[in-house]
Design brief:
single chain; alpha+beta; Uridine Diphospho-n-acetylenolpyruvylglucosamine Reductase, domain 3; Ubiquitin-like (UB roll); DNA polymerase, domain 1; five-stranded mixed beta sheet; 16 helices; 31% helix; 21% strand; globular
């Protein structure tokens, strides 16, 4: 509904009714050199895209004035790899949070990072969102930053003029500000391995159990020689304009055992270093109180060797059976709104234009005519737009439509074959798991991938898999029952 300006008689749209920024060109190069050339050619008009889960929301809200070109790095070979050597774990800029969660070496030798990645968003979002994107966005609430700082990570930056490496604690220059120069890309995050004499942990406080922006997050790494602490790093987020390291906490621990008095001294140092503000998620005083408690609990877990005590068995990734974390390379693309985009959608070839200025959700609905894909929030919070992209469940509202060029997409319309419902659809009917029906397509699509991956999930795994899907009618018990029935009958 338009709002009338009584003094002028004109109509003004509410902020949420206004169109976001329009993208005129979507470029998907297949080499790093070409990507750097494009960024240099278009200058301030261009933004690189890895997962795009933050950038697409910002564009929709008009938060990137002047940007009308996206340079998608997703078709450049090798950028989605986790490379391990004797000393470090290297993350390419396309490595997603779920790739880290699935990595055994990250779980055991970059434990805080794996734990932080598991806390980011939902499985569908973690299938697109990247660790590099998390640090480039540079919000003090971004979970992986504290984990990487505590681990002593560094970052490789590449431009047309060469490469340089910065310790991560020098990468952040202020609130949502980094040391990236124009035309420069993060091309690797280098994470030292914990090794046999070090332990690390990440803890987070949010206002709900999943899909929560951190009220406070904290990561701690402690190195030991026997029972004596030889080094430690504690990083805290959402308590200052940037995620901060607390050297005073290190001073309280080094050359001592990790006992109650030392833990208390380190916790007090963390509190003293924090300078939080009041915001919608919490008042400053609460953050100051709780960050000390979090430090005590984190260090206590490390003292007891319980840093992985809450790590879930087989955390759902929604990869299904045909996806290994890496998306296939569909070749170079240069797309404006007049360029036909061709994709395999539900097993048939669909060719349609209008992709440059659209996300995948709008392209599927408006150009491909597949209205089973729903828009509930347009920011990756509700899961109603969940589809399968090249085998993985993703939020279609957070995927550039140009990404569909050459890809395989499955929507709710593609599950039934020869008018025979998919077993999950049958189970939803049998268990009365369909209420208003708006959220149902996304829930079904997520459930299909869950059962491909974990044929007989327990309730905790079902809950974790559906963390990104909101039911407006709160009919979760019936939904859980339907998934378990489909699993038992498979």
């Amino acid at each position: 509904m338009a709002v009338t300006n009584e003094s002028s008689g004109s109509h003004e749209l509410h902020e949420i009714q206004r169109a976001g920024q329009s993208i005129s060109l979507y470029e998907a190069p297949t080499s790093l050199a070409r990507a750097l050339d494009l960024l240099g050619e278009y200058g301030h008009r261009a933004r690189p895209v890895a997962g795009g889960t933050d950038l697409l929301v910002e564009l929709d809200r008009g938060a990137r004035p002047g940007v009308d070109v996206l340079v998608d790095l997703g078709r450049i070979p090798g950028l989605d790899e986790i490379v391990v050597d004797d000393q470090s774990i290297g993350l390419g800029p396309l490595v997603t949070h779920n790739q880290v969660v699935a990595s055994e070496i990250c779980r055991t030798e970059a434990t805080p990072l794996a734990q932080a990645c598991h806390e980011v968003g939902s499985p569908q979002l973690r299938n697109r969102a990247t660790v590099a994107g998390n640090i480039v966005t540079a919000s003090p609430a971004n979970d992986t930053i504290s984990a990487l700082l505590a681990l002593g990570a560094s970052v490789e930056l590449t431009s047309a003029s060469g490469r340089r490496t910065l310790p991560l604690d020098q990468f952040f220059t202020g609130f949502r500000a980094t040391a990236l120069n124009p035309g420069e890309l993060v091309t690797r995050i280098i994470v030292p391995r914990l090794g046999a004499h070090a332990r690390g942990v990440f803890v987070k406080l949010g206002l709900r159990r999943a899909q929560a922006i951190s009220v406070v997050h904290l990561a701690a790494v402690v190195e030991f020689d026997g029972d004596t602490v030889t080094d430690s790093r504690i990083a805290v987020g959402s308590v200052a304009p940037t995620v901060i390291l607390v050297p005073e906490a290190r001073a309280a621990l080094v050359s001592r055992t990790l006992g109650a008095a030392e833990i208390e001294a380190a916790a007090r140092a963390v509190v003293d270093a924090s300078t939080p503000i009041d915001d919608l998620r919490a008042p400053a005083r609460y953050r100051s109180d709780v960050v000390g408690t979090m430090a005590r609990r984190a260090l206590g877990a490390l003292a007891r060797g319980e840093e992985l005590a809450t790590w879930p068995d087989h955390p759902p990734l929604l990869w299904g059976s045909g996806f290994d974390g890496s998306y296939p390379n569909h070749g170079e693309a240069s797309i404006d709104d007049g360029t036909p985009v061709t994709a395999s959608v539900n097993g048939r070839t669909v060719t349609a234009a209008g992709a440059a200025s659209s996300n995948l959700l709008d392209w599927l609905r408006d150009e491909a005519g597949l209205t089973g894909v729903k828009e509930g929030c347009a920011e990756g919070e509700c899961g109603a737009c969940t589809v399968h992209l090249d085998g993985a469940a993703v939020m279609a509202c957070l995927v550039p439509a140009g990404r569909a060029q050459g890809a395989e997409v499955v929507t709710i319309e593609g599950l039934a074959t020869d008018d025979v419902l998919h077993p999950i659809q049958e189970a939803f009917v049998d268990c009365a798991a369909v209420q208003c029906g708006f959220c149902t397509p996304g829930l079904v699509m997520a459930s299909v991938k869950l059962l491909e991956e974990i044929p007989d999930p327990d309730r905790r795994q079902v809950t974790a898999a559906l963390a990104g899907n909101l039911c407006r009618c709160t009919g979760y018990n019936a939904i859980h029952a339907a998934i378990q029935q489909a699993g038992e009958s498979s």
